[in-house]
UniProtKB/TrEMBL annotation:
UniProt-recorded Gene Ontology molecular function terms: G protein-coupled receptor binding
Provenance organism: Poecilia reticulata (Guppy)
Region of interest (Disordered), residue spans: 376-398
Family: Belongs to the arrestin family.
One GO term describing the cellular component: photoreceptor inner segment
Gene3D superfamilies xrefs: 2.60.40.640, 2.60.40.840
Domain (Arrestin C-terminal-like) ranges: 193-351
Designated name of the protein: S-arrestin
GO biological processes: G protein-coupled receptor internalization; nervous system development; signal transduction
Superkingdom, taxonomy of origin: Eukaryota
Length: 398
């Protein structure tokens, strides 16, 4: 069966403007980014002479919108681009850039108009830090938004009931090539011990996909006179807010408290398994996600990859991962630790491209909302004045 040609739609409350788009996630391939394209459907009577504009924005939030510390606002617009789509400033044919737009224009009729945006190459990908149960307001996040609205002019006051907002995501997929399996080793000398402790940790590969088990090969040669009481492994997510504060949030997203011991003069060779999953961290405050917790299609944030020459400071939030290995050493004066950090990359696999020829000709319309988790109610982008596309703006069969 051919893949369905799904179109997502959303309409403002006064039914003057509706937005139709073929996808909600746009892929950053480091050297290029998927363009944002769609179609706006207008109701001339509801517009009452107003114009229609579409904007693409990238917003960095750090805490609630009303917070302000030493005069620095915690909300910053990293990027904003605006297009007037009605009355059109060019022929409709010149505004069509994709086959999906062309299909939509044929389906929706003469009151439909195309829009098209290209991302600049220095914008971050979507990421948010999960708020705690008691936190209120907007969380720390890098968000992308498509907004369509009707107004007398671009700078006029915009009414909520004449506005429709759609939260989209800019995401990255894993590169085609794997790096070398990361390996870290250390030698520890102790007082009153003639020989050292040697530890080596090697991962089976450098790049892991979300939901994939990590195999950590641990090799301990304990030639010292100390006893290792325990071996503890964890996966740590490091989210660094590089804009404004440079704060780092280090969160353990999986742990293996093995209870393994290695006596003086003994060795240990063992493979430990770790599996970092959002499902096991839903209550953890500060975990970085690719979207919002209530979106069924979100997950732990992917590792950040940066295009050469782009300043990290403009990327909002940088995410990385590492396997931590701690050896708990017993002693007469109390316990001590020997630790190693092994970095790795966590991303989504690149999906297989679907050829246009394999797509169904029939368009399937769905509301522009991500699937909710069971038991969670609420709008997916929390804005007022937006409603699902009703019969008044539904495409008519031809």
């Amino acid at each position: 069966m051919s893949p369905k040609n799904v179109i997502f739609k959303k309409t403002c409350k006064d039914k003057s403007v509706g937005v139709f788009m073929g996808k909600r996630d746009f892929v950053d391939r480091v050297d290029s980014v998927d363009p944002v394209d769609g179609v706006v459907l207008i109701d001339p009577e509801a517009l009452a002479g107003r114009k229609v504009f579409v904007t693409l924005s990238c917003i960095f939030r750090y805490g609630r919108d009303d917070m302000d510390v030493i005069g620095i606002a915690f909300r910053r617009e990293l990027y904003l681009s605006t297009r007037q789509v009605y009355p059109p400033l060019q022929d409709r044919e010149k505004g069509v850039h994709t086959k999906t737009q062309a299909k939509l224009l044929r389906k929706l009729g003469n009151n439909a108009y195309p829009f098209f945006f290209e991302f600049p190459d220095n914008l971050p990908c979507s990421v948010s830090l999960q708020p705690g149960p008691q936190d209120v307001g907007k969380q720390c996040a890098v968000e992308f938004e498509i907004k369509a609205f009707s107004a007398e002019s671009q700078d006029a006051k915009v009414r909520k009931r004449s506005t429709v907002k759609l939260m989209i995501r800019k995401v990255q997929y894993a590169p085609d090539m794997q790096g070398a399996p990361p390996s870290v080793e250390t030698t520890k000398d102790f007082l009153m011990s003639d020989k050292p402790l040697h530890v080596k940790v090697t991962l089976d590969k450098e790049l892991y996909y979300h939901g994939e088990t990590i195999h950590a090969h641990v090799n301990i040669t304990n030639n010292s006179n100390k006893n290792i009481k325990n071996v503890v492994l964890s996966v740590d997510q490091v989210a660094t807010v590089v804009l404004y504060s440079n704060d780092s949030y280090v969160k353990c997203v999986d742990i293996e408290d093995s209870g393994d011991s290695v006596s003086a003069g003994a060795t240990l060779q063992k493979v430990y398994k770790l599996l970092p999953l959002l499902a096991n961290n839903r209550e953890r405050r500060g975990i970085a996600l690719d979207g919002k917790l209530k979106h069924e299609d979100t997950n732990l944030a992917s590792s950040s990859t940066v295009k050469e020459g782009v300043l990290k400071e403009v990327l909002g939030i940088m995410v990385s991962y590492k396997v931590m290995v701690k050896l708990i050493i017993g002693g007469m004066m109390g316990s001590s630790e020997v630790g190693l950090e092994v970095p790795f990359t966590l991303m989504h696999p690149k999906p297989e491209a679907v050829k246009e020829s394999e797509m169904e000709d029939e368009l399937v319309f769905q509301e522009f909302k991500r699937s909710y988790l069971k038991g969670i109610i609420g709008d997916d982008d929390d804005e007022e004045g937006n409603v699902s596309g009703g019969d008044d703006m539904a495409p008519k069969e031809k």
